[in-house]
Structure prediction request, 394 residues.
Amino acid sequence: MKNITNFDFTNKKAIVRVDFNVPLNDKFEVTDDTRIVAALPTIKKIAETGAVILMSHLGRPKGKDEKFSLKHILPKLSELVGKEVMFVNDCIGEEVKEKVASLKNGDILLLENLRFYPEEKKGDRNFAKQLAELADVYVNDAFGTAHRAHASTAIIADFFPENKMFGYVIEGELESLHKVLDEPKRPLTAILGGAKVSSKITVIEKLLEKVDNLIIAGGMTYTFVKARGGKIGTSLVEDDYLDMANNIVKKAKELNVNLILPVDILNADDFAPDANTQVTPVDEIKDGWMGLDIGPKTIEIFKKVITESKTVIWNGPTGVFEMDKFANGTIQVANALVDATEKGCFTLIGGGDSVAAIKKYKLENKVSYVSTGGGAMLEFLEGKALPGIEAIRK
Prediction:
């Protein structure tokens, strides 16, 4: 397998799959440039001696749709790269070929949204072939879509049996996940939040085989609490997964894993920023009330476990952090991760809401690594093979 650092891109055209699926406001301006910034080292490395052809998707368009055009990100991309990035109004076809043919070393060209073609998501081989014909080298740097067997993330690699490689984003992701899963410094702690047990079962089961501490928080707390007979009021619950929750508790005991659930909860009488609130034990929530964040005793327990850990992975907030009234638990966990990082702990933050939280509080540069891929990271943690990764390695 080729390595981007050592590869000679001189006089070569590299087609690079990036993840520029970034949020835009109503003026079509980029509101979060994290994914673009992450791709800059790869883009700049190639552009030192070769030409760069960037391809990405944006949103979920149904056919060609102006509001999902990648031309909207061009101003921000050019600003961040430090030079004008060219754009072509398609990703395959004669116009694209002509534009690519005129590229010189150092030039950067952005293709139009790949998902304007349904063939992209279908993993169509002919579509992948047309993309491949534009370049001499294929670089996959889109970890956020590595779990999809799409034309541009997996199939295209077949057309570059010799000249295919990961970019720096994917290299960094794999290195960080390797540190957590294969060679962690212990104690190893995983914090899993979010709404549903059902979406995290496989991850929980896999992590139980690896971690010393497993902290459960967020909405899925209440499925565990109800499963053991606690009162949860109108809190979020998955009644179909009560037995599963009990099985997870049992398996943790068998594996000698410290499974940590909240002991107290900040409740509200309405799912609203101006709701009345009260703190109760986690299993004594009154009828008509719902748990929306962890309580003060739980915060102290979580913080102690985190700061005594040597490796921590965090996926999912502890409560409804989008409302300030229910953000304290998530803020305290984020700050504890910063403290742990300062003491030499390796801290990996992954999953959309955790990343959103760490960035909301401007702490992303104070932890070890912030993952760019939510779904891809979860599937990696589950032990699944990611098509975009396997396509480069084979």
About this structure: The chain has 14 helices and 17 strands. The two ends are 8 Å apart (CA to CA). The mean pLDDT is 95.
